Amino acid sequence: MKITCVINGTLRVLDARPLDRLLDILRNLGLTGAKEGCGEGECGACAVLLDGELVNSCMVPAIQVHGRTVLTAEGLGAPENPDILQKAFLEEGAVQCGFCIPGMVMASRALLARIPHPDRPAIRTGLAGNLCRCTGYEKIIRAVEKAAGMGYGEGIPPFAGPVCDYPPEFSDEERKSFFQPSSIAEAMEIRAEYGDEITFLAGTTDFFPDLKNGKVEVKKVLDLSRLEELRAITRKDGKLFVGACASDSMIMEHPDVLSLFPALARAAELSGARAVQNRATLGGNLASASGAADLPVPLLVLGASVILGSLRGERLVPIEEFFAGYRQTVLKNDEMLLGVSLSIPPATLRQAFYKRGSRAALTLSRISVACSAVLEEGTLKDVRIAAGSMSAFPVRLPETEKSLSGKRLSAELADDAADSASREINPRKSGEFRKTVTGNLVRKFLLSLLQN
Ligand SMILES: Cc1cc2nc3c(=O)[nH]c(=O)nc-3n(C[C@H](O)[C@H](O)[C@H](O)COP(=O)(O)OP(=O)(O)OC[C@H]3O[C@@H](n4cnc5c(N)ncnc54)[C@H](O)[C@@H]3O)c2cc1C
Ligand code: FES
Ligand code: FES
Hints:
Residues 1-76 form the 2Fe-2S ferredoxin-type domain. 33% of the residues lie in helices and 21% in strands. The protein is α+β, with helices and mostly antiparallel strands.
């Protein structure tokens, strides 16, 4: 295929295969700043900016680079003429072996563009997806502080818009297997024609690791990246619609999600790190149906319905009925996921999402818990509790919910609920640990209601 894009300020028309990784495209052009570390989104060595947003270039396919603007470390400044940020890295002694540094610099630039004067926790969060084997983190943080102090973030121009609005040019052979529809109706026609042969490309953060690990066989590819409607988050008639292609970053920063569904915003905020969050979508998270997926857990307690669409029309499936087994859903082979619908909750609904993994950031959940309840004059109502990462898919804990609804909240009741939740879950592995922590998280939620 031929793709048109701007790389470091230069318009390029490139020959590529649709699933070529942006990382390989860049390195073949001699732009070797972006490095291959893990090749699956875990290390940030390959981080670049795509339309101004931080992405891991090892997980971006060529088909999604068409029409877009790429910035790499080489586009900031040359060794003889580094920009303010690169200079700050040098002056603070942040560069040791240097392997992680181009990715670190790009993550820092993305952070300073969003938050020109971040505090230390914000810097740590902004760089959480970038690993440094030489453990030079303290000096790296100081370099970011230095560049921020020099007004680097304020000088970054906003994203200027798409490079072109025409589709990429596929070869005759590619046209049989790669589709990039510009409307949902067109996407549904393609899905109806090829059924199970279709692999959807959304943010490709599950797709590329699966491809690398031989878990996906690619026959026909339906790229959703031109379907702007699927990225929408809109409030209408007492409902909030979150489109299937809304990214974690969009979800965690959207004012309606933050004010009405903070548990969902929190789950998106705790999923991956910034480069993953900018790409990972709600639809991909649900359709992958991983037992460790974070977004379904709050969606279970918030009473979400999944909207599935096909040429036959749309159907709404309560999220409890969406998962059918390990990595299985009720999605039929002519359907695609359009988004989720959430009823606007009463202002008195309290909600929380907690997650525990093997490290503080960029970690898959080993345990996740979402809770919601109304506390009315000391009495609990409408209690819902869900747990993830225990079994093939996340589940509600109806026994524990029942034991709480209509009861007067007290520290003793919170202890009983913790015991009940521990008994009710049935983890596949690390049983005692998961049971104890799940109980503790349920107690934590209830005590937080008491304290407020
Ligand atoms: C480093 C790293 C860290 C991660 N951390 C977390 C984490 O903390 N929590 C978490 O939950 N996940 C995590 N993930 C997993 C992943 O980011 C999420 O599951 C993400 O939401 C997947 O969305 P995507 O858009 O990237 O999906 P893609 O990879 O594009 O697609 C995944 C699957 O969904 C299907 N699909 C996508 N969209 C649709 C649609 N609209 N209709 C039908 N089928 C569709 C595709 O066919 C494919 O089978 C992580 C991944 C990486 C690489
Ligand atoms: S190479 Fe590790 S995130 Fe891309
Ligand atoms: S400087 Fe060596 S990996 Fe970071």
